[in-house]
Amino acid sequence: MNQLAESITDAMVINALIPQRPPMVMVDAFHHYSEGKVIAGITPSSSNIFAEDQRINASGIIEHMAQTVALYTGYQYFIKQQPAPTGYIGAIKKVFIHELPALDQELRTTAEVLHEIMGVTLVKAETYCGETLIASSEMKTVIASS
């Protein structure tokens, strides 16, 4: 099943699994992978591109959700010994941002795959700060054609 034995926080490993590059990287911890589910985290600092008034803004939370899905896809490719594909957000619906968290707190997003076919992945994502649900969405990501 290729589940993770422990969380990965090495930036070089994470960067090999996603197509984004600084300053757009919005995952710094890879906590869980299983078929149909991924959990990733980020602890944004004041230097984060999405930092605003000592908080992470809504765009940053949504980008973190999308990169969590990218991490899921990138790890699938890693297992097959292939480079992480480039993709993009195809659609977002049912987005609820309940709270903009303060900086220097870890956000954890769980993405559960609802449907996956031909490079299109539909997920339900929930982002927590501690025990508090701060955001949720349904998101469709698409792998770019080569």
Structure characteristics:
146 residues; Thiol Ester Dehydrase, Chain A; 8 strands; 20% helix
Beta strand %: 35-45%
- Rg result: 14 Å
Span from first to last CA?
Answer: 28 Å
CATH superfamily: Hotdog Thioesterase
Order of helices and strands: HEEEEHEEEE
CATH topology category name: Thiol Ester Dehydrase, Chain A
Q: Total helix count?
A: 2
Number of strands: 8
Would you kindly provide a written description of the structure presented here, covering whatever features stand out?
By secondary structure, this protein is an alpha+beta fold. It has a single domain (11-143), classed as Hotdog Thioesterase (Thiol Ester Dehydrase, Chain A, Roll). It is 20% helix and 41% strand. A 6-stranded antiparallel sheet has the order 1-2-6-7-8-5. A two-stranded antiparallel sheet has the order 3-4. A hairpin with a 2-residue loop joins β7 (120-129) and β8.
What layout of secondary structure does this protein have?
Layout: H1 11-17, E1 29-34, E2 37-42, E3 51-52, E4 55-56, H2 58-79, E5 87-97, E6 107-117, E7 120-129, E8 132-143
Antiparallel strand pairs: 1-2, 2-6, 3-4, 5-8, 6-7, 7-8
What is shown here, in short?
By secondary structure, the protein is α+β, with helices and mostly antiparallel strands. The protein is built from 2 helices and 8 strands; from the N terminus they run H-E-E-E-E-H-E-E-E-E. It has a single domain (11-143), classed as Thiol Ester Dehydrase, Chain A (Roll).
